[in-house]
Specification:
It is a single chain. This protein is mainly alpha-helical and about 140 residues long. It is about 40% helix and about 5% strand. The protein has helices at about 5-20, 30-35, 40-65, 115-125; strands at about 70, 100. The protein has a two-stranded antiparallel ribbon with strand order 1-2. The radius of gyration is 17 Å and the shape is globular.
């Protein structure tokens, strides 16, 4: 359930502490990968690990002036069991949150996955290319 999460935290924290990256895309795959097993205790451990690791990354990033966009592209670990008690091992269609941590953002609009890239561009003050059909979620 822990996979390489702690190693990722160490690597990303090192980058943020040196302020060498303008943008970092980090994927904690634990809840998704372990969610496919349908093993409840392992899923719980994967989610707890991700929660702790994400907290560490955010703490380091905030000290170094980073902004954060936290999102999942689908659910999985949010539903470990089917109504009959059997393991649920596939993606869910449940809504996923988008969390933006930035001093410049006070409100987010609802949206869809195609709105994430325009939102990131807006955080950087970069104009959205016409090829992108999504809209920034920043309200």
């Amino acid at each position: 359930p822990e996979m390489s999460a702690h190693k990722l935290v160490k690597l990303v924290s090192g980058e943020m502490n040196t302020d060498s990256a303008d943008f970092i895309c980090l994927n904690f795959a634990n809840p998704d990968m372990v969610g496919h097993t349908g093993i409840y205790d392992a899923i719980l451990k994967a989610v707890e690990t991700t929660d702790g690791c994400l907290s560490e990354v955010i703490n380091v990033g905030m000290k170094n002036g980073y902004q954060f966009v936290i999102i999942a592209d689908h659910g999985n670990a949010d539903k470990a069991l089917n109504p009959d008690g059997s393991p649920h091992t596939s993606h869910t269609l449940n809504p996923v949150p988008v969390i933006v941590i930035s001093d410049d953002v006070k409100f987010l609009n609802n949206g869809k996955l195609s709105d994430v890239a325009p939102t990131i561009l807006a955080l950087f003050g970069i104009d959205q290319p016409s090829e992108m059909t999504g809209k920034s979620l920043i309200g």
